[in-house]
Write a structure and sequence with these properties.
The structure holds 2 protein chains of 2 kinds. By secondary structure, chain A is mainly α. Helix content of chain A is 62%, strand content 0%. In chain A, helix 1 crosses helix 4. Chain A starts with a helix and ends with a helix. In chain B, helix 1 links the parallel strand 1 and strand 2. The longest helix of chain B is centred in the middle third of the chain and has 29 residues. In chain B, helix 1 packs across helix 9, helix 3 runs parallel beside helix 4 and helix 4 runs parallel beside helix 6. The chains are: A mainly alpha, B alpha/beta. Chains A and B meet through helix 2 of A and helix 4 of B.
Amino acid sequence: MSDIEDRVRKIVVEHLNVEADKVTEKASFMDDLGADSLDQVELVMAFEEEFGVEIPDDAAESIQTFGDAVAFLSKATS
Amino acid sequence: MFDLTGKRALVTGASGGIGSAIAKALAEQGAEVALSGTRTGALEDVAATIDGKTHILPCNLSDLDAVERLVPQAEEALGGLDILINNAGMTRDNIFMRMKDEEWDDVLAINLTAPFHLTRAAIRGMMKRRFGRIISITSVVGVVGNPGQGNYAASKAGLAGMSKSLAYEVASRGITVNTIAPGFIGSAMTDELNDKQREAILQKVPASRLGTSEEIAACAAFLSSAEAAYITGHTLNVNGGMVMI
């Protein structure tokens, strides 16, 4: 779990250019971390690449926060 | 200037007059080009005239499954895709009151829906690489209309609107989205016009001649280049002054 968290956090920090400590479980990519809708698409693409999974559009739309992403990817890679 | 060395391009409708000229022009500037079209033999003929590496990717753009596969195939053959030229198009002319549903649907499918699918697939890789060029060939008819071409004009105007909307979305990612709107261009089709028809057309064109496929291709090469990075959401009107907008 913590490994996944670290990898997801690294992607979010790099893509959105935010401080790592702002990337908390409840942090919303759009509301708290300054992502626009295109950033959100890019984050999902980056997650797919990093974890070798395919994230369908409806699942991608449900990934709104850092915690959502970690939970989804933990499940998808388990 | 306008060097495309190392760039990888996919051209649809590459066996036609304008499509083959675009493929050649991009290759001359150094791009590696994938040629798509329905007739493999005709694509091979075009490839034989191109000095440089080419790939032949036959695709029937009315088959959506095949359309969905085309960009991944091009990315695999080329190792990525930097330039997408939505050139393939068709006409099914009829006056509006007589236009059949199929005439409308077929033209929209090839001229607008296929470019949507190809473009959506192509921008994914372009976003990652922070570089991309989407160029769609429209028509002066999409701007000014033409009797008997309600379906064709709608598809071309649609492409222009699609391109502008997408241009907004991806501009910050180094991707430009533009259209080229040819006027009357010399082709196998215009060769068949009789003198009277030809005269009628040329009266509308201040340049007093038909354009050439190479003149359209040069615009595509320019818009594909690094030098054109600040041009997006634009329509380049290439019509000898027929419509000045």
